[in-house]
Write a structure and sequence with these properties.
The chain is of the alpha/beta class. The chain is built from 9 helices and 7 strands, in the order ααββαβαβαβαββααα. It has one domain: Glycerol-3-phosphate (1)-acyltransferase, CATH 3.40.1130. The protein is globular, with a radius of gyration of 18 Å.
Length: 282
């Protein structure tokens, strides 16, 4: 099994390089074993608090300028299928601001990362196979139900990628909400792609504005039927220029990612045409 390291990060200037190396050493190289150890032995509530503290330290280290709205829509004691827009690896730093204990559905390839993967495994995050099977989907559904029974909310990124706002939603989060009779909580996240541009570049940036707006929950029995309406609402907010800038997918700049399954939202016809033309040639 291949192992990958987070980074190397690229920053401008000697002082920033020293700062970044020190921060990565403390927050990742030393921080991950502590969090993984807590995941093995500590009460889940203690782990949740520790992860929130770690995320807060990371946000302060990166000087992220965080704007959060809509937390009043989160009902105390309620579990949700949390469906955020997906921009980058800094997204979970914002999601820890939700007053919820979170369990993530994560692509299987990330479990191969050296530090991140170890924490994902020890903390019991739910693995999503790149090539799903009937057995794997059954296990995913069972693991998701167990998490909800423990009082945890599920985080499912409906775009399934960090390509950009143009990528269409898939049904996964909405199907889970329906199957598990759990309300869906839409969350608009923008600006996090500027913090760390992986996999497009190793650039790490300090002082970036990032935004999160929590929308009213969607009842479980309405989730599937309202999927496109929810997607439209979330993306309209993300593109409204009232929050941190959203990430846009430019396949001629970013590549076409032929090894990944994704579709382009039909509200972005120029990008859809580029992808369709490329695939027709392939």
């Amino acid at each position: 099994m291949a192992h990958h390291n987070v980074g190397p990060f690229r920053v401008e200037g000697t002082a920033e390089r020293i700062r970044t190396a020190a921060g990565a050493g403390i927050l990742i190289v030393l921080g991950e074993p502590v969090l993984s150890g807590l995941a093995r032995w500590a009460d889940p509530e203690i782990l949740h608090k520790a992860v929130s503290i770690w995320a807060g330290m990371t946000v302060r280290f990166l000087d992220m300028r965080v704007e959060v709205e809509g937390l009043q829509h989160v009902e105390p004691g309620q579990t949700y299928v949390v469906a955020p827009l997906h921009e980058g690896f800094a997204d979970p730093l914002l999601l820890t601001r939700l007053p919820l204990r979170l369990r993530y559905l994560v692509r299987d390839e990330l479990f191969d990362w050296a530090h991140l993967g170890r924490f994902l495994r020890t903390s019991g995050q739910i693995e999503v196979a790149t090539a799903p099977t009937a057995r794997g989907l059954h296990q995913l559904l069972g693991g998701s139900r167990e998490a909800l029974d423990r009082g945890e909310s599920l985080v499912v990124f409906p775009q399934g990628s960090i390509l950009g706002v143009e990528v269409a939603f898939t049904r996964g989060a909405f199907v889970l909400a329906d199957r598990l009779s759990c309300p869906l909580l839409p969350v608009v996240v923008t600006g996090t792609h500027r913090v760390w541009e992986h996999p497009y570049s190793p650039a790490l940036r300090y002082g970036q504005p990032v935004s999160m707006r929590v929308l009213p929950p969607v009842p479980a029995d309405e989730a599937l039927a309202s999927m496109r309406e929810v997607e439209s609402q979330m993306k309209t907010i993300a593109l409204s220029n009232t929050f941190a800038p959203v990430r846009h997918f430019d396949p001629e700049r970013d590549g076409y990612w032929d090894g990944y399954t994704y579709e382009i939202d039909r509200r972005f016809p120029e990008v859809a045409a580029l992808v369709e033309s490329h695939r027709a040639k392939g």
